[in-house]
Structure formats: C-alpha cells, structure tokens
Amino acid sequence: MTPDVHPQEAARLGALRRYAILDTPFERDYDDVVDLARRICGTPASTITFIDEGRQWFKAVVGLGNRDGPLKTSLCAHAILADDFVEIADTWDDPRTSDNPLCANVPGCRFYAGVVLRTGDGLPIGTLCVLDFAPRVLDDLQRDTLRLLGAQVMRQLDLRATLVQAEMLRREIDHRVKNSLQSVGAFVRLQRRAATNIEVTATLQAVEQQIEAVALLHDLISEATGEQLDLGDYLRRLTALLAMIVPAGIAVTGRFAPLAAGPAVATAIGTIVNELVANAVKHSFAAGDRGQISLTGAHDDTGNYQIECRDDGPSTTPAVSTPRDGLGLKIMTASIRQLNGAIVGEQSASGYCSRVTFPAPALALPLVANR
C-alpha cells in the first residue's frame, strides 16, 4: 500500500528544510541514538528517518545498507500519518505493509516500531524507528525509551537550527559593523583632508587610526569560532596587521606565548596592544625617525600574563611609572582595569618600555563591564 500524502505536506516539507539536516554527513550524536534504540529494543536495525519530497532519507542508520529510498516502500511515510507512536507487530498482517516488497520478500522487515519526530508546531518530519526480521512486540519500557530518544533527536535538531540561525545573525552583524566602520572612516577621512587647522587635522588622523584599528580587531575576532581562541595567535596576527599601517621606517614585531581566552577578552587585550603601538609611534618616532617596536607576551613566574611594548625611538620623555598620554589612553586604561591588570612604563638609554600585567584567572573568565 502506497503511503498517502500528508494533509499539511507543504508546511511539513518547509519545516523539514528549515532544519537544514538533509544530506548532511553522519554525526556521532545521532548515530549514538539509533545504536542505543537498537540495543534497548533488541532489534537488528534502527534509523532516524526524514520524509522528504519523493524519498526517505536516513540521518543515522544501523543494520541497513542504504541511506535513502523511495516513498512508495517507506514504512516511516506511513508512520508520520498516524499518531506519535506506531508499532506493527507483524507487517504481513497489516494492510499498510502486507504488500510492501521490503516486508513481503524473505528475508524482509516483519516488525516495525517508530516514534514520530514532530516540530514545535506539531508537523511530522520523520521518525526514530526500530526494525526486525521476525514478528515481535515491545514492552512498555522499550516504548517509553523510544519516545524519550525521539524527544532527544528533536532537541538535537532544534539546537542545530538555533546554531545555524545564530551563525547567520553573526554574519549579518559582522557585515553591518564592517560597513558602518567603513562609512565612518570615509567621513572622518574627508573631514581630515578638508581641515585647515593643524590640531584638528592631527585629532582627525588619530580618530581615523582608531577606526582602522577597531576594524582590524573586528575582522580578527569575527574569524574566531567557539567560546575560546588562542590569545597568542590572535596577537601575532594583530601585530602583523599593525606592522602594515604604522608609518614607513618603523618595524613592528611580536612574539606571544599561547593562552586560551574568550573573544571578549581577546578584543580588550587587542585594543590595549593597539594603543601601546600607537603611543610608541606618537611619542618615540614623532619626527619620522626609523626604528623598531617589539611586542612580547609571556607568563611570568607567578602565572600571570605579561605584555611588553619596547621601542628604540629617540624619545626624550623622562622615565615614568605610568604610560605616556595620548588619545587612546582612556580606552587603554579602561580595558586594563576591566581585566584587573596593571601597567607601568620606564625610559632607558635604549628606548621606552610599557609593561602590562594581567592575572591569568581574569583572562579565563567572561569579561564583565565595571559598574
């Protein structure tokens, strides 16, 4: 008997497509479900089946050789038309399956039990089922377990859909942020070129550099996936970008020890590193001198993470215990304070050094704004 078309077929197929699950590779989370279902129910086969247009497709399968098949011989296509749970003790005795070649042939499927996978709107998109080559009956515990496993499959699907939507939203936000930064940067650049006052021009140039740095930081963070990234790798890549935008004749190098940190923490430290470099360029190479800015990041003896910015510019600033001022000083000190860090600066015959120390535990925790 060929399965009937579901009365809400268009809506049902639309719901299935929104999960973006069809034709995806095997995944451990789903494979474990069918293996557990097979073992608990004592059957040789189990599948997670989605009923697509014109075919059935197995997201997970054990005990059968194919990943898809036609709807006309699909037992699961019958199941989605019924209640939430379907059990056929002997397929030879059921009019829906008695003439099905998958059941009538020997050896064939003689037993079928499936829990319908329904969306939050009640639309059936497939089943979690178990099959046997001999007639049988499940007990109450097996039926209840199959229902629980079916609910677990739907939770996995809903989580997957949420992650897909979150990724799409992240990309849209990244796109908008990038466009906004480009627009603001272009506006500031036009204002700087039109300015006739030297102080206004210098201020707008500093603002332009800030916008460019924020854009670079955003690009690096947007490439990160997951809850943590390697801070050392992130800072090395940031250093390479900074080396491209500093004035000609100034070399910027960086060596950073690895450290796991969240994207928000990495963004804050990236902002600090950017300000350290900008400060060095402004104060140590103000006259267009050539030289080098060296950045390092390492763990000290107490386990804290310490970042140094050394330059060999011909600065005449006397030795001080705090960083030199500049447009980004407030941003930098606020970021350091957020991470419970401390900064000192010192002048020597070979140049100037700014040293920022962060307690390691602060870098491992989510960043929370000070109140």
Total number of beta strands? 13
What is the count of structural domains? 2
Radius of gyration: 32 Å
Mind telling me which CATH architecture of the largest domain this is?
Answer: 2-Layer Sandwich
Number of helices: 10
Any idea what the shape is?
elongated
How would you spell out the order of helices and strands? HHEEEHEHEEHHEHEEHEEHEEH
Strand content: 15-25%
Share of helix, binned: 40-55%
Give structural notes:
By secondary structure, the chain is α+β, with helices and mostly antiparallel strands. The protein folds into two domains: 9-161, GAF domain (Beta-Lactamase, 2-Layer Sandwich); 226-371, Heat Shock Protein 90, CATH 3.30.565.10. The protein has helices at 9-18, 28-41, 75-79, 101-104, 140-194, 198-223, 231-245, 263-284, 329-338, 360-364; strands at 45-52, 55-62, 68-70, 85-88, 111-118, 124-132, 229-230, 250-256, 260-261, 291-299, 305-311, 342-348, 351-358. A hairpin with a 2-residue loop joins strand 1 (45-52) and strand 2 (55-62). The longest helix is centred in the middle third of the chain and has 55 residues, at 140-194. It is elongated, with a radius of gyration of 32 Å. Mean pLDDT is 85; it is low at 316-324 and 365-371.
